[in-house]
Design a protein that fits this description.
CATH architecture: Beta Barrel
CATH topology: Thrombin, subunit H
Strand order of the largest sheet: 1-2-3-6-5-4
Structural class: alpha+beta
Order of helices and strands: HEEEEEEHH
CATH superfamily: predicted glycosyltransferase like domains
Number of domains: 1
Number of strands: 6
CATH class: Mainly Beta
Strand content: 35-45%
Distance between the termini: 60 Å
Helix content: 10-25%
Radius of gyration: 19 Å
Length: about 140
């Protein structure tokens, strides 16, 4: 079971190097501020199990609660950890699996939601081909 992130733990590690691995990536997500009800699209630059860095011109203050809609994971709650120019850091309330956020949608060739012609192409791409002969 996931346990909540202790705010005292994150504050005491301000000057120390981070222990969580970060996965650099470039994907879009929706950032929502539940208190004001505003939301907008952001570009996620890196993600770890404890948080992410997003690029967008946001007007937020440190500690403000947010929700981020990440691909394959859905809505994840957290708080604004820092804001600098057009970037912001978000600390998640609960750890996530960052590899799930990176996984491409539709990588399973038997996905029922995928159109039949794409399933066929995925199946063909995954089947091993005979080696070429030299003549």
């Amino acid at each position: 079971m996931n346990k909540p992130v202790d705010p005292m733990e994150t504050e005491s590690t301000a000057g120390k190097p981070r222990s969580q691995d970060r996965n650099s990536l470039f994907m879009k997500a929706v950032l929502r501020f539940p208190v004001s009800g505003t939301q907008g699209e952001v570009r996620v630059r890196n993600v770890s199990s404890g948080g992410l860095m997003a690029e967008a011109p946001v007007q937020a203050s440190r500690g403000e609660p947010v929700e981020v809609n990440l691909k394959n994971l859905g809505w994840v709650t957290g708080k604004v950890a820092w804001v600098a120019e057009s970037r912001c850091g978000i600390a998640f309330d609960y750890p996530i699996d960052p590899k799930a956020a990176r996984q491409q949608i539709g990588t399973n060739p038997t996905d029922e939601n995928m159109p039949h012609y794409l399933r066929k192409l995925n199946t063909q791409a995954l089947t091993p081909k005979a080696p070429l002969r030299r003549i």
